Each structure stands twice: as structure tokens, then as C-alpha cells.
Amino acid sequence: MSKKPGLKSVTRFASALALSLGTAAQAAPSDFTTWTVIEDPEHDLLDASATPTEATLTAGDGAIPAEVDIGYASVNGSTVAGSTAGFAFSAASDFTVAITYDLSFVNPAGGLGIGFGIGEDVAGANSAGIALATANGVLPTFAAGARNNDVTIGPAILGGGSLTGTFFAAYDADTGDITVSASATPDAAAPDLGGIILGATLNQWTGADLLVSFFIRSDAVPALLINNWTGEQATAVFSNFRVLDGAPILIPEPASLALLGLGGLAIGLRRRRA
What we know:
The chain is mainly beta. The chain has 2 domains: 1-29 and 252-274, no CATH class; 32-247, Jelly Rolls. It contains 2 helices and 16 strands. A 7-stranded antiparallel beta sheet has the order 1-4-14-7-8-9-10, with no helix packed on it. α1 (7-26) runs antiparallel to α2 (254-273). The radius of gyration is 21 Å and the shape is globular. It starts with 6 loop residues before the first helix and ends with a helix.
């Protein structure tokens, strides 16, 4: 006759379940397959794919209207509060994040940029970040900008850029300031280009938790005779996302996952007793 599981066995199982669920969730931030694709708006010539170690964004052969982009966000909802998976950061705590990028072209034509930043919503109504802008595949330039209640602030030119390197974004909880910077060295531990502080406007944000995102985008600057993207292919590979300071909030948090698992266990035990 088989024995029914005792309380001690159930407790051991529950502890193991909680530990395994928590460990799995904590691996999420650096695993790009846990990030969510965002399109603004959807376009047939823009594509995104991910492996655990890399996320690849491409602009294909043909015309893509200016200000159309595709990318990845660290949460699966329009805001952190509206998400059921991913990770974010508390607006009450300092943090610094970084990501490595590599941008390449085949027969480039028109304006194209890639970027990395943080914000309160996936649409970017309250957001700030750093971008690498190019024209016909050359003249790479680092620039920074922000949006407050969907009003664009900037961009501000940081200086000459590089088609490979590292983006950085740091948040100061006391002031609400966000400092963005870059390095021409992939996987850099610190920026070698002076950062720019995007501060005054950010204090008007709502105080919601902050998500992370990155993108590739068709751009145009008519005043400089730069038209929207019409080239053959642009490929941006993002890798080695890391949290240099602070601690991400996992969605759902490990404790919530454990409670969910324990709830399922309790249901199973009830059914067995029934």
C-alpha cells in the first residue's frame, strides 16, 4: 500500500518549488527570449528575433516611413503595472543598466537609428534614452532625448558615434534624473563618452515603476536632406544586457510564483483527499 505524502514531504516539495521558480525568474533579465517585441506601428520590412544571448532587429529592403520602429521591452504590457511577465525597476531606487550593440548595413540609404532607454510606458510617452543616428550608413552620431507626457524634449547631440559599442542609462531616485551615455567599446564596463542628464522634465512623470527597451527605427531629417530609410538591409544585434547597479523587480515576483505553485499544490491535495 502506498503512503500518502506527510506534511514534512509536502513542505520539502513546496520549498523546492519556491526555490526553482524563484531561480528561473531571476535569470530573466539577461535572457532576451523573455523580452517582448514592440512595434510602432507594425511594418512588413521590420523584423525582430531573439535567442537567450542576443536580440536581432532588422530593417529590410525598401522604404520604411520615418518614425516607424521595432524593438523589445522588458515587460509584456503597456506599463509595468499592466504586465504579467518581464522585469522593471522601482522609481524609488537608483539603478544603472547597459547593453552592447552592433549595427551593420548592406547598401544603406536614408536615415536609420538604434536606441536604448527607460520609461514608464511602452509607447514612450514618458521616456528617456540614448540613440545612435546614421545617414546612408555613415556619420554615426550619439544623441539623447526624452519625452514628457508625449512631448519630445531634444534631441541633444553627445558627439561622434560608433557602429559597435555600449549604451548606458542611469536613474537617480532622489532627483528623478536619468543620465545616458555610451562607449565605442562593446561590453564596456563604463562609458567613455560624457553622459547627458535628462532631469528637469522627468520630475513631471507619474512616479510609476520603470521599464527598459531598445529599438531600430527609420528616421528622416529634411533640413539636412536626410530621407527615411530606403536601403537594402540594416541589422542591429543587441547583447549582454546587464544591471550594473540596483536590483530589478521580477514580474511576477518569485514569491508570487511560489504562492501560485503552492496554490496548485493545495488544489491537487484537496482533489486527492476528495
